[in-house]
# Entry
Amino acid sequence: MMRKLSMAVVFFVAFFLGACSSTPGIEKRTIEGGPGDPIEVSLIGASQPMMMFSRGSELPQQVNFQFEVSNNSDGPLTVQRIQVYQHGSAPIQLESAQGGFDTTIDPGHDQTFTVNATARQMRPARQGDEASIIIRADVALTNGDSYVYTFSVPIGLSVQ
# Structure
């Protein structure tokens, strides 16, 4: 009985130590982006999703987002990925999308990134519908930090 208990303790300790030493972890932080941060993200271009009053409303739409990431820090930063998702609900629903980049930006420089997404109209357009969708862009750096920014993207109306 004592032998079984000591074997269990040895197994647990070995498992615990193995789990702790398997991969050096990077502390990950998610930060709501704003002034004074090491990076600044701007939405510099987006194709406009369309709300349709008649035919074609059920078809998926490709939406392209162009972001400019500025490095305001004292050292180089590497953008690992940018994830885009819709915040809130609207007649147009954006499917979450991301782009993987692994692009280094030197201090004081900017880099443009494009993320392609798909949007779907969930119901026919109605008078009084919001003319925009709110998106969130989550910019992940290789140092473990993620900066999240919120943007409003206009929706076009099409009567066909």
Remarks:
- The longest strand covers residues 110-121.
- The radius of gyration is 23 Å.
- Residues 7-23 have pLDDT under 50 and may be disordered.
